[in-house]
From TrEMBL:
Gene3D superfamilies: Jelly Rolls
A GO BP annotation: carbohydrate metabolic process
Species: Flavobacterium akiainvivens
Cofactor note: Binds 1 zinc ion per subunit.
Identification of the protein by name: Phosphohexomutase
Keyword list, A-Z: Isomerase, Metal-binding, Zinc
Record-annotated active site: 200
Coiled-coil annotated spans: none
A Pfam cross-reference name: PMI_typeI_cat
Domain annotation Mannose-6-phosphate isomerase cupin: ranges: 246-320
């Protein structure tokens, strides 16, 4: 067994955002640099924002360097065969003190053509929601490019969008092309394809300290958008100490694992596994060693680690590629 066979934790990449706040510090223990910190990139191979290992024998090593040296051990044989030495997913926590912009993401084909990038299929798990907060997701009726542009021009876009009250534990699966926004007062765990391509459509007429608005991508969004209504919210079971399916798509599988005691995990080496702890504390027992994690921790289990035990009282999201 080489040195890589342990749970990898990465230094958070903290991002200041015009809509950000302090909940990443107050709720998740992140050492935020500003009172408008909107995102903690927990595990990223996005160019310019590559995660660095925080713990163990490989502390200080960038994720991309480890992927060059140990692609099968980290990614897994099937994931390596499909994606090469690229890490295909991006994991974040988001704190929306204010509404995020209304936006849409392109699919793989469009993103490759325009940006030489993956598209951005994503999912949200609501970790905390203030009373009265809401998610904006999809159109509330079958729309069209013409109606979308007319409503945008008259600042009535929100009238044709689907607004859903948000509560802790809600899950939304957003296929590419789905118009959306995270509403104010919500903390989200986000799992997405490795992509930083966002078409921002409307930003509530916000301006920065210099009076400048953020760039919009109204025209780019036109042929990226799905104008049909979409069924984005996912129901899921919550059987204790079991992996309960939330989202299973070509890009990732996410399970809900409520831990109260012990869960034995066996893997086949095809894919890495990531655990996001949204509540509580737990340990990973592996080859005679015990590693302790808590709410706000994101852990990468290399694919070469095929058997381990989860113990504790915690709520976990379990993610891999199937």
């Amino acid at each position: 067994m080489n040195q890589l066979h342990y749970p990898l934790v990465f230094e958070p990449i903290l991002q200041d955002r015009i809509w950000g706040g302090t909940k990443l510090r107050d709720d998740l223990g992140k050492n935020i640099p500003t009172p408008t910190t909107g995102e903690s990139w927990e595990l990223s191979a996005v160019k310019g924002n590559v995660s660095v290992v925080e713990n163990g024998a490989f502390a200080g090593k960038p994720l991309t360097e480890l992927l060059e040296q140990y692609p099968n051990d980290i990614l897994g044989t099937a994931v390596h065969a499909r994606f090469g030495k690229q890490f295909p997913l991006l994991f974040k926590f988001l704190d929306a003190r204010e509404d995020l912009s209304i936006q849409v993401h392109p699919n793989d084909e469009l993103a490759k053509q325009r940006h030489n990038s993956f598209g951005k299929t994503e999912m949200w798990y609501v970790m905390q929601a203030d009373p009265g907060s809401r998610i904006i997701v999809g159109f509330n009726h079958k729309s069209s490019a013409q109606e979308y542009l007319e409503k945008l021009e008259s600042k009535q876009l929100i009238d044709i969008l689907n607004q859903v009250p948000a509560k802790k534990g809600d899950v939304y699966f957003l296929e590419t092309g789905t118009i959306h926004a995270i509403g104010a007062g919500i903390v989200i765990a986000e799992i997405q394809q490795t992509s930083d391509i966002t078409y921002r459509i409307y930003d509530w007429d916000r301006v920065d300290a210099n009076g400048n608005g953020r760039q919009l991508h109204v025209q780019e969004a036109l042929d990226a958008m799905n104008y049909n209504t979409t069924d984005t919210q996912k129901e899921y079971t919550k059987e204790v100490n079991k992996s309960n399916s939330m989202v299973d798509c070509p890009y990732f599988t996410t399970n809900f694992l409520p831990l109260d005691g012990k869960a034995e995990v066996a893997k086949n080496g095809d894919s890495f596994t990531v655990y996001i702890c949204t509540e509580g504390e737990y340990t990973i027992d592996l080859q005679g060693s015990t590693y302790t994690f808590k709410k706000g921790d994101t852990v990468l289990i290399p694919a070469a680690v095929t058997a381990f035990t989860l113990t504790g009282n915690a709520t976990l999201l379990e993610i891999y590629i199937s």
